Structures are given as structure tokens and as C-alpha cells.
Amino acid sequence: MAEYFNIPKIPYEGKNSKNPLAFKFYNPDEEINGKKMREHLKFALSWWHTMGGDGTDMFGVGTADKKWGGSDAMDIAKNKAYAAFEIMDKLSVDYYCFHDRDIAPEADNLKETNKRLDEISDLLKELMDKSGKKLLWGTANCFNNPRYMHGAGTAPDADVFAFAAAQIKKALELTVKLGGNGYVFWGGREGYETLLNTNLCLEQDNMARLMHLAVDYARSIGFKGDFYIEPKPKEPTKHQYDFDTATVLGFLRKYDLLNDFKMNIEANHATLAGHTFQHELRVARENGVFGSIDANQGDMLLGWDTDQFPTNILQVWIHSLSVCAWLTSLSRTAGSTSLLMTGMQAGKQALAPMLFPARLNWLILKSMHLKRAMCLLLFPADVRKCLKAFSITFFSLTDLLKFWRSYENAV
Ligand SMILES: [Mn+2]
Questions:
Q1: How far is Cα 84 from Cα 183, in angstroms, rounded to an integer?
Q2: Helix (H, G, I), strand (E, B) or coil at 48
Q3: Backbone angles phi, psi at 136, to 5 degrees
Q4: Residue of 40, 94, 99, 260 with catalytic role
Q5: How far does the centroid of ligand 1 lie from the alpha carbon of residue 96, in Å?
Q6: Does position 372 have pLDDT exceeding 70, yes or no?
Q7: pLDDT over 70 (residue 357)
Q8: What is the pLDDT of residues 208-263, one digit of tens each?
Q9: For residue 362, is pLDDT > 80?
Q10: What pLDDT digit, counting tens, does each position of 278-319 carry?
Q11: Helix or strand (DSSP H, E) at 173
């Protein structure tokens, strides 16, 4: 089998390693609190960004070759699968996630399209059996094809709704076939541009109807996992019905979907909604709907979803607090600093791959001597607010500085 990535498997070499292609902190099989690092948080490769994203933007065509040496569409799809399993192995990533259209290209009709999906999912299953890699979640791409220009579940056209239902039915079958832990709804076009031609209530009734159909069908074919909604406030639609976690919570309660759905929270979607990622994590956690996260970051100088790799070490640390507080099942009033510190330690390690490229930011932070007074002066207002909230809720100032010092030593 041809090799797609001309690099060796990335080893763990510890914090003193000078090898740029080595993990300094993430040691997948190291046990922390009785659980391996790779089991604390399950990292997943996204098929669309990693294997399919070719850098296309509004003003030009793609600049990265993501054909993986293939010539026709099905060739490319197969090579993509081989390449994905190679890079997952080399990076010690145990899970992947996909939209139906990421793994196999759409054909002229539904029957042919589904045949292609059967063929590629057979290959994926074979590669999974060989490697032990797993599917985190599956989803259907109900936003690319022009038929979805006015939405899928919220489309004002019964044929479009029916097509979306059929597409989701197949995506659920694939998710079950590949043993996926979850199934995601991201409704990029489930929204509106103007109320002058939109029946807002009917559209949301229809979207809920589609979700109930999906849940009923999935349970009937043995799907035991969670459904997720990925909130996003805008882009491509101006007003999206799943604006943020609080909005989605209201929707789930209204339509009696809370038993089956949780949130898949993305950092850059949170910031587009005018929130911090931490806010979204906290709202989800405290309402019992914290499901999965997309740990990216946006660019504060841009107004769109840039899906960047997280490089702000302080932000990542603050986000890890939310995740770890959840992992250790701490309530806000428990006040058990030592338990939280243990949780944070585990989380710091588990999130280490995210911290890996952030060394430069960290060096800048270090030069500030980590004095809280300095932080208050130098960090943006939302970070100051977070620090203040945490120091009141969980920490004395001494604890906070102690943790930062141990963190400084670790980095
Ligand atoms: Mn995004």
C-alpha cells in the first residue's frame, strides 16, 4: 500500500525532546487517575477538513490537492480512506467523524448514491477492523447540494424535506453499521434571510418533525448513542434556528427532544454568537446536555468561521476547566479544590495535543511572570471575567498561582 504521508509515526518523547515531530506532553497510553490519556478525551479526525478541505474560499478555487492520487470520484474516495487511516495511525488519533458526502461523492440519483456509500463504508469497516480505529459520529450533509438552498427540514418544499429524510435515514444506517457513538445535526441552512417570506413557527415544527423521525428510525435499527445538535448563529444563513446552546435548549424542550439530544459545541461557533466557548460549555454542562466538542478557535478580527487550530494557551486552559469540572462531576458549590486540581491535571494532559503548537504564546505569557495584576491589565475583558469568576467560584488566588506555576514548570 502506497504511503501518503512521508513522516514516521509520531512518538511521545517528553517535554525535553527537540524533535519537532514528537509529542512533548501527550502520551496516549499513560494512565492518569486510572484511565489512559487516549480514553480521557477522544480525539477525532474530521473527514471534511482533514481529508477533503482544499482551501476553496469565496474568491477562488482550492489550492490544496486533496485527490490523494485518485483520478475518478470513487478512486479519490477510496484513496481518501486509506490516507485517513494512515494519518490517524501516525498521530495516534483513535476516532474519526464524517458527513455522508465526505466519504462518497453524490451520484445522479439516490439509489446510485447509496450504492456508493455502501461500497465505501464496507472499505471503512475493513480498515477499522484492521486498525481498531472507531467512529465518533456520523452526519448527513444537507446543505451543499443546491436542492437545500432554503434548508432541509425547514425547506418550504415537501420534496426537499423528503429527500433530506431519505438522506438522513441512510446516514443513520451507516453510523450504526460503523458503530458510531453519536449522530450530529448541523443545520447550516436551517434558518432564514427575511421574515417577509418565512413562516418561522412552521419551519421549526418541520425541523423538529424531521428530528423525531430520525430518532424513531435510529432507535428501531439499534442505535443506542446520543444525537447532537451543533449550534451556530449564522453562516451561511443569516438567522439560524440553532443560534447557540440556550436557544437549542429551548427548542429541544418545546419539541420534547431532550431525552435523545445533547450539544456538539464548537469554539468558533460560540464566538460567532457573541459568547465565549467557555460560556457555551458551561450552559450545556449545567443543563445536562454536554455531548461533544469541536475544539477550534476563530480569529477575533474576522467575522466568519475560520475553524483554526487552537493556539491561545490561556483560552485552552480556561476551556479545559469547563471540561474537567464536568469530568470530575463537581458542582459549583462543592468547593473541593484538590479534586478540581486533579481534574485539571488530567485535563491538561488530555488536552496536551491542543497545547503543542501553542508554545510561542506560552513563552509570551511566561514573560509576564504570571502575575494576576498583570493579567488583569493585559488580557482581554472576557478572559479577565473568566479568571475573576473562577477565582471566586473555585480558587483562592494562591491556588490559581500555584497551578499556573506548576503549569509553567510543565511547559
Ligand atoms: Mn466551524
A1: 20
A2: helix
A3: -75, -55
A4: 99
A5: 16
A6: no
A7: no
A8: 999 999 999 999 999 999 999 999 999 999 999 999 999 999 999 999 999 999 99
A9: no
A10: 999 999 999 999 998 898 899 989 989 998 888 888 888 788
A11: helix 158-177
Ligand 1 centroid from CA 265, angstroms:
10
400 CA to middle of ligand 1, Å? 32
Separation of 178 CA from ligand 1 center, angstroms?
Answer: 24
Quickly count: other Cβ atoms within 10 Å of residue 204's Cβ: 17
What secondary structure letter does DSSP report for 310? P
| CB 185, CB 139: distance < 8 Å | yes
Q: Is the pLDDT higher at 96 or at 37?
A: 96
Tell me how far apart the alpha carbons of residues 147 and 110 are, in angstroms, rounded to a whole number. 13
More confident residue, 373 or 48: 48
Bridge partner residues of 46 (DSSP): 97
Element housing 314 (H / E): helix 313-327
Mean of pLDDT values over 347-366: 39
Q: Is 57 helix (H, G, I), strand (E, B) or coil?
A: strand
Residue type for position 324: C
Cell of 396: 483562592
pLDDT band at 386 (very low <50, low <70, confident <90, very high): very low
CA-to-CA distance for 287 and 282, rounded, in angstroms?
8
Ligand 1 midpoint to CA 306 (Å):
7
Question: How far is ligand 1, taken at its centre, from the CA of residue 277, in Å?
Answer: 12
Distance 49 CA to ligand 1 centre (A): 10
Our answer to whether residue 54 is catalytic in this structure is no
Q: How far is the CA of 300 from the centre of ligand 1 (A)?
A: 14
What are the residues whose beta carbon lies below 5 Å from ligand 1 (ion)? 268, 305, 307
C-alpha torsion angle, residues 69, 71, 77, 78 (rounded to 10): -70
For the record, the C-alpha cell of 286 comes out as 449545567
393: pLDDT strictly greater than 80:
no
Q: Is residue 319 flagged as an active site residue?
A: no
pLDDT of residue 322: 75
CA 270 / ligand 1 centre spacing (Å): 10
User: pTM for the whole thing?
Assistant: 0.81
The catalytic position among 100, 102, 244, 305 is 102
Please give the full DSSP string across 81-135, using - where no structure is assigned. HHHHHHHHHHHT--EEEEEHHHHS---SSHHHHHHHHHHHHHHHHHHHHHH--EE
